[in-house]
Design a protein that fits this description.
Shape: globular
Strand order of the largest sheet: 12-13-19-16-15-20
Distance between the termini: 72 Å
Strand content: 15-25%
Number of domains: 5
Structural class: alpha+beta
Length: 616
């Protein structure tokens, strides 16, 4: 049965929004980056644990392949393992592939185990503090297992800690069900009943109180925080039976309890859903999210990856965690080793590809050039965006519509195209140069042989879906605003070209830079005509491009300039046209075979005054 409710009263709507939705909190870039997950790190850590549980710590690749479904992975496990040669050693024995951890990886595993042995008293204190904060001084094992990663507990903490410290803990099962097994506190230790806030206040010689980590511009939030902090601090280790539900004292204790829970974790953060499982044990409110969002100076709530997570603000600064647990340091070393292995894999793969190209007789760079530019290029699929020309906002591409491959004429426009030059990438804005560079939208998806891909390189025949980002782009239509013979080009600003030239010129191959120059010149010629038209100049520049491939020689023959006067040059300098445009008009006068109305000395002088290098 489906029930639809309509509210005419705006107060009722506001009530339901407040009580049945998780409010949003203003995003903090530093804390959001702290929440960033490294998917590769999580998967490799699970593979590491699988190998360690195998006999002799050696697993067959076939066995790991079976576990790929539980790791939410697709593809071949062998290919994945070979991407991280610093972490996993794969070898062939008979007809079977085997995998074991490398010596460096085993060294990190041993270091992690030694840290856990040294941290055993800390684990005991954390477990005791959790039990002391609970209402019945016992916690369900199944629920506690959900937080053991956050707390840094080893997988065998029940076997390792409980029997060894029988004077503090014991395993009980009062209901007799398997899922009802609990850890119970045997003896109360008053030395441990000290919260992180109380310990910090004792060291500073002040009264225990919360700290606020908000900017000074958040005036209202600061006022609410000072009002909340004015009441005495209530320790989360005190019994809550004497407190009235809904009172300020009860709220103070609940905020202090969540603060203490997050202080005990390794990364000073936890999932709100996991904390909600302990609602009865820790006497937490039913709507825990409402409590947390009322105190933005103490907690930070984020919905990154569609998982609501709460962070302790005072535990982080612009560099990340303020105090790193020794276990966190070891885990970061594992991430660095994994990244090093990925770079090594990419380097080997690149060298193999170069050898294949050499055998096929492909030209890899300029003739008689000592250093091969293409050897400096790496695979963007594995190393991510390098910025500059390889960023979807920075790179120019050509796409040509295939006949009888227009699947949808209106937004979203679906076309079959040939990638003539550059690469096609999801998120690229597309414009039509033959139609005054009108923008028709961005590439939302790419399909190659009915399979979704993120990138389509030069020479591929793919289907792309273009989605308009605003009302104007959504009204673009095939047949009205562009035709099948029109070329589609990714939109790029002149500022991006200047950034490319200043920072990434040495990283681009000859063909890539010629592609940038060719399209930039064509775009700037139309802008120059518009500027001259505004100044009512009689000497217009006729920029006409003929369809030919991008090469260093053909560029000089594709543009025809009728005339260029000294006054026009001054107009261009006043409007700050691009450096590439000046270079083309003044530096190629001999190549073009046209007589300009100014000589080279005047051109150099004007270039110096305008701070534009003509021959760069």
């Amino acid at each position: 049965m489906v029930v639809t409710m309509h509210f005419q009263n705006p107060r009722l709507v506001q009530y339901f929004v407040r009580n049945f939705s998780l409010w949003s909190m203003k995003k903090d870039p530093y804390l959001e980056s702290a929440l960033s997950k490294n998917r590769r790190w999580i998967v490799n850590n699970q593979i590491k644990n699988i190998i360690l549980r195998c006999p002799d710590q050696v697993a067959t690749v076939r066995f790991i392949q079976k576990k790929f479904k539980t790791l939410d992975l697709q593809g071949k496990a062998l290919n994945w393992l070979k991407k991280y040669p610093c972490c996993f050693q794969v070898y062939l024995q008979g007809d079977e592939y085997y995998c074991q951890l490398t010596k460096r990886m085993m060294g990190l595993v041993e270091e992690e185990e030694s840290v856990k042995d040294m941290q055993e008293p800390v684990f005991v204190e954390r477990l005791a503090k959790l039990l002391m904060m609970s209402s019945n001084k016992r916690l369900n094992v199944v629920k506690l297992n959900e937080l053991k990663r956050n707390l840094g507990f080893p997988d065998d903490y029940l076997i390792r800690l409980v029997p060894k410290y029988s004077d503090m803990f014991q395993i009980v099962n009062y209901s007799g069900r398997r899922s009802s097994m609990e850890i119970e506190l045997v003896s109360w230790n008053p030395d441990l009943a000290v919260s992180a806030i109380e310990a910090s206040a004792h060291n500073q010689g002040t009264e225990p109180c919360f700290t606020c980590s908000l900017p000074s511009t958040w005036v209202k939030s600061w006022e609410r925080f000072h009002e909340f902090n004015a009441t005495p601090y209530i320790s989360p280790y005190l019994d809550s039976k004497g407190l009235v539900e809904g009172s300020k004292e009860m709220e103070k204790r609940m905020v202090g309890l969540v603060h203490e829970l997050l202080s005990l974790t390794l990364w000073k953060k936890a999932s709100i859903a996991k904390l909600g499982h302990f609602q009865r044990e820790f006497v937490l409110p039913e709507k825990l999210n409402v409590l947390l969002l009322k105190h933005p100076g103490i907690f930070y709530v984020s919905n990154k990856y569609q998982i609501y997570t709460v962070l302790l603000r005072e535990g982080y600064n612009e560099q990340g965690l303020v105090d790193k647990d020794p276990l966190v340091v070891v885990k970061e070393k594992f991430g660095e080793l994994m990244q090093e292995g990925l770079h090594e894999y990419n380097r080997r793969r690149h060298l193999v590809n170069l050898e294949k190209k050499k055998k096929k007789g492909m030209v890899l760079g300029r003739p008689n050039e000592g250093k091969d530019r293409s050897s400096e290029m790496s695979d963007p699929d594995d190393q991510g965006d390098r910025g500059g020309l390889f960023d979807p906002e920075e790179r120019k591409r050509f796409y040509k519509i295939l006949p009888n491959c227009v699947f949808n004429k209106k937004d979203p426009i679906v076309l079959g195209v040939d990638v003539l030059e550059g690469i096609a990438k999801v998120g690229t804005p597309i414009c039509i140069p033959q139609r005054d560079f009108i923008t028709i939208g961005r590439i939302a998806s790419i399909e190659n042989n009915h399979k979704p891909v993120d990138i389509a390189k030069k020479g591929l025949r793919v289907a792309i879906k273009i989605v308009g980002a605003n009302s104007d782009e959504q009204q673009r239509m095939f047949g009205r605003h562009f035709e099948i013979e029109d070329e589609r080009v990714s939109h790029i600003s002149r500022r991006s070209i200047d950034i490319l030239k200043a920072n990434c010129r040495d990283e681009l191959s000859i063909d890539e830079w010629n592609l940038v120059v060719k399209l930039t010149f064509r775009d700037t010629m139309s802008e120059a005509d518009a500027i001259l038209e505004q100044h009512s100049s009689s000497n217009a520049i006729c920029g006409e491009w003929r369809g030919s491939k991008s090469s260093s020689s053909s560029l000089f023959h594709e543009v025809h300039v009728s005339s260029l006067s000294k006054s026009n040059i001054e107009i261009f300098m006043a409007n700050q046209l691009s450096c590439i445009f000046f270079k083309t008009l003044l530096g190629w006068q001999v190549k073009l075979g046209k007589e300009l109305k100014i000589d080279s000395e005047e051109a150099s002088e004007m270039s110096r005054k305008a701070s534009y290098p003509l021959f760069c």
